[in-house]
């Protein structure tokens, strides 16, 4: 009813499930049977005097908590209060596995479990652990603390697990965010962030956490002093070109956008240019080609590794043939290190290529979501922004970024006309448009035939949907000239039509349908307001609407009804369109009378008002489908539905809009009666 609204995105709700904790030996007894018995036994072992036993228990609990059905048994036995003290255990290995278990609990348990974790005071030991790790990192610069795996740094690995727990609980619970603010956790995690050049995984975890805690958190803004800005600046201006570093910079750019009120007017232009440069850096990469190349690289690497191991095994066999037959001691083959207490992450070192592609897709998704949110910002006055220039990115967050004297942030950064122009120019809308295409079939085929790569298909589809939503938002805040003129809009309309109609079967994926119909709706609104001819045929329109109206998603149904209303109002001004208008009118009447949602019914009525508001063809069609009698008969039914269903089911804003529809229905009926009276006389 009325213009479509831009959609806002929040930061990712949960971190990926924590590391696959593979304890040595067999899995916990009864793991597939009596989960309650297993939970009780493992929690009891947390009190064992042997650190190895405690580590085994934490690792086993961590593994079980990745299965949602196992979580209730642990919650009933107060797993949070049992694991909390383990975060400060004397054994570093126990600390890491305990943090990993809590990470899995928070990630797999969801919002209610995270709330329960905060209620059970997980923040006290968690914050203490984070602070100890921060102090430990400084000590490690002199004498690093190594884990059982000599290539790993224990303190950094523990910090990574702890930051992921912090991220998850802060995303779900306001109390956790308040604790983050009051306990000075910002300085702690910024200390971790400085390790980005040697431990990008830890830095990415911190960046995810920062994006969460900086969102709608004015209390934290005063903590972002010049030193904090300099840490963010140094990473955003770094030149590392791996996909993981691109993701890191993208996440931090999102955090900078969240704390835009701390940016001084003198640095606003360079800040927005730096943010957009980072987004452009991630969006310019072709994810489909990256999948193809990375999969080829993985295949070649694994082939060479297998050949090398075969040669070493042959060599070992020859060497062993000279040993005495009584010698029963067998060493594992070289190149294969037997790790009984393997606590590797979900994407271990032998999945490097997969990890790179995953990071790229997350970076692109994040960039698109932040652009959507930038487009949703409140409209500022023009004097709030300096004219953007091609200033040097090195000016980002200079000394004046924070007024140390007053202790107050300076003028705010908002989406003004200048920022919008920079968004269009720096990102090059073509990059966003390219992301709206379906993933390359070759890339999809590669992922389909590789179990570990198969989840990338969903991630590629998500990027496409975010790009469509981003396009929708840009269309809402842009004028025709910024978008490239009438010809560009017509080409864009053809592109969106092809997305829907070029597939062998009509798309049914809800997220895609919502995104593509939202973009179509915004585009058709813009084209109609500028009297630009539509590109979709009546047959295509009806196919889209007839398929979309059966979606279980209300937004999809609202969009297709609105699209039909926009197209119909344009057709009403063209000669010899009465038959098409009849088809549109019947469809909209049917939706208004039968759709179970009052919001969709109201949108259908609104569309009817637009289509049959004026024009000879519209009047002719209205008479032939008996629009006036149908609406007069439906009017009391609509009023009754609003009285019965309105309260409790719909928001105040929705009810306000529905009241306007009800009033407009009365006026439209009166208008149609006037038209009928004129024809009679």
Automatic annotation (TrEMBL):
Residue ranges of the region described as Disordered: 1-38, 307-341
Domain SYO1-like TPR repeats: 417-674
GO MF term set: unfolded protein binding
Top-level lineage group: Eukaryota
Biased composition (Basic and acidic residues): 331-341
One of the GO biological process terms: ribosomal large subunit biogenesis
Name by which UniProt lists this protein: HEAT repeat-containing protein 3
Family of the protein in this entry: Belongs to the nuclear import and ribosome assembly adapter family.
Database matches in SUPFAM superfamilies: ARM repeat
Species of provenance: Platysternon megacephalum
């Amino acid at each position: 009813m009325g213009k479509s609204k831009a959609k806002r995105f929040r930061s990712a709700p949960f971190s990926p499930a924590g590391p696959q904790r593979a304890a040595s030996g067999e899995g916990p007894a009864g793991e597939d049977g009596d989960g309650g018995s297993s939970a009780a036994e493992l929690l009891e072992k947390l009190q064992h005097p042997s650190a190895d036993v405690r580590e085994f228990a934490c690792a086993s609990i961590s593994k079980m908590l990745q299965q949602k059905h196992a979580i209730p048994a642990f919650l009933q036995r107060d797993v949070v209060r049992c694991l909390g003290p383990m975060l400060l255990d004397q054994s570093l290995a126990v600390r890491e596995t305990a943090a990993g278990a809590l990470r899995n609990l928070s990630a797999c348990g969801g919002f209610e479990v995270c709330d329960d974790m905060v209620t059970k005071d997980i923040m006290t030991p968690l914050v203490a652990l984070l602070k100890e790790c921060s102090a430990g990192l400084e000590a490690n610069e002199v004498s690093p603390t190594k884990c059982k795996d000599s290539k790993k740094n224990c303190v950094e690995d523990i910090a990574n697990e702890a930051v992921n727990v912090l991220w998850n609980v802060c995303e779900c619970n306001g109390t956790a965010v308040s604790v983050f603010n009051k306990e000075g956790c910002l300085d702690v995690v910024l200390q971790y962030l400085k390790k980005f050049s040697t431990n990008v995984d830890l830095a990415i975890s911190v960046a995810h956490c920062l994006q969460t805690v900086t969102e709608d958190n004015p209390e934290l803004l005063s903590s972002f002093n010049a030193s904090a800005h300099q840490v963010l600046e140094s990473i955003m201006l770094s030149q590392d070109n791996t996909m993981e570093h691109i993701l890191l910079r993208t996440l931090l750019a999102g955090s900078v956008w969240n704390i835009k009120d701390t940016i001084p007017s003198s640095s606003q232009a360079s800040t927005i240019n730096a943010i957009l440069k980072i987004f452009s850096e991630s969006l310019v990469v072709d994810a489909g080609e990256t999948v193809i190349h990375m999969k080829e690289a993985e295949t070649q690497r694994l082939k060479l590794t297998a050949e090398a191991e075969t040669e070493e095994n042959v060599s070992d066999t020859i060497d062993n043939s000279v040993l005495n037959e009584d010698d029963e001691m067998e060493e594992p083959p070289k190149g294969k290190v037997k790790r009984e207490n393997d606590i590797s992450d979900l994407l271990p070192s032998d999945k490097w290529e997969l990890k790179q592609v995953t990071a790229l897709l997350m970076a692109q998704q994040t960039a698109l979501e932040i652009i959507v949110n930038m487009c949703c910002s409140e409209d500022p006055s023009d004097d709030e922004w300096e004219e953007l220039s091609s200033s040097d990115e090195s000016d980002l967050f200079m000394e004046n970024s924070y007024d140390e004297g007053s202790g107050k942030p300076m003028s705010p950064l908002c989406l003004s006309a200048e920022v919008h122009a920079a968004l269009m120019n720096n990102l090059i809308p073509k990059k966003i448009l390219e992301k709206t295409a379906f993933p390359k079939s070759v890339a999809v085929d590669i992922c389909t035939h590789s179990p570990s790569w198969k989840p990338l298909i969903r991630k590629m589809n998500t990027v496409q949907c975010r790009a469509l939503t981003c396009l929708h938002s840009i269309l809402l805040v842009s004028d025709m000239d910024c978008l490239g003129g009438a010809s560009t809009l017509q080409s864009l309309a053809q592109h969106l039509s092809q997305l829907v109609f070029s597939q062998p079967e009509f798309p049914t994926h809800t997220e895609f349908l919502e995104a593509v119909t939202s973009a179509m709706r915004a585009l058709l609104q813009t084209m109609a307001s500028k009297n630009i001819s539509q590109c979709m045929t009546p047959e295509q329109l009806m196919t889209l609407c007839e398929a979309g109206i059966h979606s279980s998603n209300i937004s999809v149904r609202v969009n297709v009804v609105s699209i039909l209303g926009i197209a119909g109002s344009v057709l009403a001004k063209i000669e010899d369109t009465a038959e098409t208008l009849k088809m549109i009118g019947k469809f909209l009447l049917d939706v208004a009378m039968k759709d179970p949602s009052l919001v969709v019914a109201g949108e259908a009525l609104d569309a009817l008002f637009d289509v049959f508001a004026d024009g000879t063809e519209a009047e002719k069609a209205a008479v032939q489908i008996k629009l006036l009698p149908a609406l007069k008969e439906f009017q009391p039914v609509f009023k009754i539905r609003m009285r019965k269903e309105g309260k409790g089911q719909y928001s105040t804003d929705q009810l306000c809009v529905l009241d306007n529809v009800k009033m407009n229905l009365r006026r439209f009926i009166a208008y149609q009666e006037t038209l009928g009276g004129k024809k009679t006389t």
